[in-house]
Amino acid sequence: MVKKGFPSFGITQSGAFVAALKNYNLPDFILALVAKDSNSDLLKRGRIDDRLSSMNDTALELLHRVFVDCEEDKEGKYAQYRFFAYVSSMYHKCEVLISETIPGKSGKKHKVPIAVKNNGMYIAIGFNKPTGHAVSKKDIQKFYEIANDVKNGEHGTQLVDAIFASSAGFKGEAVVELEKLSKVDVSDAEFKLNFKTANFENRIYSVTKC
Fold this sequence. Notes:
Blueprint: H1 13-21, H2 28-37, H3 48-53, H4 57-68, H5 77-89, E1 95-103, E2 109-118, E3 121-129, H6 137-151, E4 161-166, H7 172-182, E5 194-201, E6 204-209
Parallel strand pairs: 3-4, 4-5
Antiparallel strand pairs: 1-2, 2-3, 5-6
Helix pairs in contact: 1-4, 6-7
């Protein structure tokens, strides 16, 4: 619940968290995900500071660790939150879906960490390597195969972007492999799938290839 009517005697820690986080333009689905993970309330509508103030201390601390302090955790969950927000920021007024299952042309159902829809059609899918070793040639080949299978299936006719991000870097062979694979001839530019890689370092995502 939002706390109203209480006098303010200096800023509390949760108040400081709200003051910092309200400048980060966090998407609704991120607030909802963190609220769920933290067993927190969340105002469905309203100003961002009011919505943040409706969250419990656990949720606010988690958001601050992820987006302000850019901390890492062993499971890579913090990096996933940042990746989801990054992808969302590229597609305004679109529907963002987490852990989406999309069937490909092969008939195989692919579990996609994040997918973006516009007017009911998939326009982008994204994968992320939050921890461990740098992205390898094998990782890229798997990513390429999934993206192409989805693209060529009945649900991928409007798919234009496939994004692979990493908080662990990319091996040189991986970047070379994606460049080679993405040069496969597509006669109709309208149906071309754009492969993008982004590296998270120094608290920001930098696109390494478009």
